[in-house]
Amino acid sequence: QVQLVESGGGVVQPGGSLRLSCEASGFSFSSYGMYWVRQAPGKGLEWVAFIPFDGSDQYYTDSVNGRFTISRDNSKNTLFLQMNSLRFEDTGVYYCAKGNGWWPDHWGQGTLVTVSS
Amino acid sequence: QSALTQPRSVSGSPGQSVTISCTGTSSDVGGYNYVSWYQQHPGKAPKLFIYDVSQRPSGVPDRFSGSKSGNTASLTISGLQTEDEAEYYCYSYAGYNWVFGGGTKLTVL
C-alpha cells in the first residue's frame, strides 16, 4: 500500500531555513506528480507546491514563490521541500501527497513546522 | 488564488442526509471537472473521498456522492453515521494552481 513519511520539521526562527523530506513507498514514485500541502494550526488546507513525475517543472502558491523549492530524487523515492526566509505565517503541519491526475490522493501523516522567535 | 467557499458548519441526525456546497469561479470549479473532496478527522491526515466531481475511490461508501453545477460543487452524505463527523474540504484544479475550500465541520447530532 501507499506510504508517505514526512520528516524534517521543527522549530526555527523567522528568516531561518528548513528542509522537509517525504519518503515514498508502495507505488512507482517516478510515475506520479507530488504535492506539498500545509495546514496552519486550527485552519484549513492550503496547497503549497507541485512537481510533475519527472521534476521538469515546479509550481508554487504565491505566498511561498521565491522562498520555497520543491524537488525530488526518483532514485531514492524521496520528495523534498526546501524552505528559506521562513515567516511566522509558515507555521503549520506540512503534508506530502501523491498526485493522481490533477488531485492528491494519498497523504502522509505530516510534519510540524513552527516558526517562532 | 482565493479559497473556495464552503459553509463553516453543517449538522444532521443519524440516518439523515446533508449537503455541503463548494463555490468557486469559472477559473477553478466551473472550468474543470477536477473537483475532489477530503475528509479529515482531528489530528489525522486528510483522506480522499470524491475525485473528478463524482467518482468514489474504492472503499468509500456509496452514501457519499458528489456533483457540480456551474461554479458550485456539492458533497452529499446520505444515511449519516456518527463516524461521518469530521471536517470536509473541497478542492479544485485551477490551471497549474490548486485551491482548497475553507473546510466544513460536519456534526452528527
How does the helix and strand content of chain A classify structurally?
A: mainly beta
Count up the helices of chain A.
Answer: 0
Distance between the termini of chain A: 40 Å
- Biggest sheet of chain A, open or closed, and with what strands and sense? 7 strands, mixed
Sum this structure up briefly.
Chain A is mostly beta strands and 117 residues long. In chain A, 0% of the residues lie in helices and 53% in strands.
Describe this entry's structure for a reader:
Chain A is mainly beta. Chain A contains no helices and 11 strands. In chain A, strands 2, 4, 5, 6, 9, 10 and 11 form a 7-stranded mixed sheet that branches. The radius of gyration of chain A is 13 Å and the shape is globular. Chain B is an all-beta fold. Chain B has no helices and 9 strands. Chain B has strands at residues 9-12, 18-23, 35-40, 47-50, 64-69, 72-77, 86-93, 98-100, 104-108. In chain B, strands 1, 3, 4, 7, 8 and 9 form a 6-stranded mixed sheet that branches. A 3-stranded antiparallel sheet of chain B has the order 2-6-5, with no helix packed on it. In chain B, a hairpin with a 2-residue loop joins strand 5 and strand 6 (72-77). Chain A binds chain B through residues 35, 37, 44-47, 50, 59, 61-62, 95, 100-110, and chain B through 1, 3, 32, 34, 36, 38, 40, 44-48, 51-52, 57, 89, 91, 93, 96-103.
